[in-house]
Automatic annotation (TrEMBL):
Pfam families: GFO_IDH_MocA, ox_reductase_C. One of its GO terms (molecular function) is nucleotide binding. It comes from the Eukaryota. SUPFAM superfamilies: Glyceraldehyde-3-phosphate dehydrogenase-like, C-terminal domain, NAD(P)-binding Rossmann-fold domains. It comes from Niveomyces insectorum RCEF 264. This is NAD(P)-binding domain protein. Residues 176-319 form the Oxidoreductase putative C-terminal domain. InterPro entries: Gfo/Idh/MocA-like_OxRdtase_N, Gfo/Idh/MocA_Oxidoreductase, NAD(P)-bd_dom_sf, OxRdtase_put_C. Residues 16-173 form the Gfo/Idh/MocA-like oxidoreductase N-terminal domain.
Amino acid sequence: MAAQDGEQDAAAPPYNVLYIGAGGIVFGNDWVHWNHSQHLERVLGGRLRVVGIVDPSRERFEWVMVQKNVSAARASYADTRHYISVQEAAATLNSAAAESAAAGPVHLIILASPPQFRGSLTPGRDLEAQLVAAFGRGPAIFVEKPVTTGAAEDAYAVARHLSASGNLVGVGYMLRYLRVVQKAKQILRDNQLVVMSITARYITAYARIRKTEWFDKASQGGPIVEQATHFCDLCRYLGGEVVLDSVRATALEHDEPAGELRHLTDAIDESVVPPERRIPRVTAAFWKYNTGAIGTLSHVIALHGITYSNEIDVVADGYQLRLVDLYSVPKLFVRYPHDEAEVEYYYPGDDPFYNELETICKLQDQKAGVAAAHAGNTPEEDDGLRPARILSSFEDATKSYEFSWRIRIESEKKNRD
């Protein structure tokens, strides 16, 4: 029986969480729907103890604490401390755990710093290695995507380092955890289908974004690497491995007539970003899979508000599977060989962010020998769609990152020729 939101499983011990980074993905803002801290509050209920937040900004930490101290989860933040570095956090938290069994070790680390500070073994960009050195193999580590902004070879080296460390590691390609995506995988698997084509479309809302660095390719990698990488990942997850040498792409650039964005927030001054580093407005790509199948992706920066428009169309012999609105109200529409009318699959309340965090928390509990209930997010029936393992390893996530970067490189070729 699952615990209710905010209710502690009396038989289970506290669950200590350390956040690395206090940005919007972790604690929210007014231009995105996601907020990892709120999801963990629901997953863990009263077990949750946020033991620290590592972030260079004391001001941001204090803003977070003001919000949490007036929330229903305020008890989970009663002992939260601000740290400037991983090493400072480890010195305090490891010492506390050694002195008092009640303090306990760190169970989960959420690594959500900007990607330019991780995904490498080079000092200054090696947060994963710093965490392993500081906390050992005990904590699970949840890493936000993209895994880096540097070379894929560096990220593969980190993947090997993490594999050898023994830590449970998952990467935030959360769309894999949607039940509609798992249903699509189930249909492909059960019917032994070979995908013929995948067509992905992603139209983002930009008019409330207030991060200038998002509009700077040198800072966060650009829209394909930082954002559309979610769909690059799903294209791999559903279609198989991509032949990287087959990737071709083009882009609508910021300085072309159709590329003007007229509704940037007052916080964004694109003129401070060097022209060669400004992001494209549209990127279109196509490629071949190892099977010979064809994939296409279109990413557009155009919408206002905060809701995205997105769809992935998967075609196999006799079948068409359409995954729609994956960030808001995810649905799967399937046309089967025996009927031209589509069948709709919809799972009310399904939340990929919740699902991925619930999965890593459950697995970490199992690793520690703890039998604990977690607050339920969707009905509990066993339909084979609730993940029982990590769906995105660091190595696999690096493959999606490498694929995303190849699209960006190909789309920029006309500017280099």
